[in-house]
């Protein structure tokens, strides 16, 4: 085993980078939001949505520790045509749906924040526009590429936009789809679970789901 002096600094650097990413401005606070439910392809498609889950969702989790987040990744073949979608449930029971199809992660983040973001987010947007700066790092370039992609002729000539996963499964009831959900529960509920199983669980040094910025 190498001396601690050779391994410990690397861990500090990685932790520092992680914290810098989680705390990078703007802070993605979602006041009044009860839960987020995302459905997307497990791999090979829906790349903007996948990058959102990888890059932006940990920042949202970090800024909103009591927010329920469910990520449903479903294996998808090229022949299956459905779009990635995010359901945003507000504390008053209202549910808004965001289409994530053919969008970059920055565009998805901006749409979510414009819908439910805090006054600080609105101030950030106003400040960036006045200064001629992108609202999120890389967003200006992503918007240009996104418009180019959306302007390209579609290989699938089916009229109308693609169905959501729920709509696709409803129209194809015999389709056997293996779902691989990832659920992030509220920390309060996790605390209750820990108290209920305190007498039966043993102490472990492995980080639990609640300590991870984003469960994979």
UniProtKB/TrEMBL annotation:
Composition-biased stretches (Low complexity): 199-216
Keyword Ribosomal protein: yes
Zinc found in the keyword field: no
Protein location: Mitochondrion
Region Disordered, residue ranges: 149-216
Stored PANTHER family: MITOCHONDRIAL RIBOSOMAL PROTEIN S25, SMALL RIBOSOMAL SUBUNIT PROTEIN MS25
Protein name per its UniProtKB record: Ribosomal protein/NADH dehydrogenase domain-containing protein
Natural source organism: Pholiota conissans
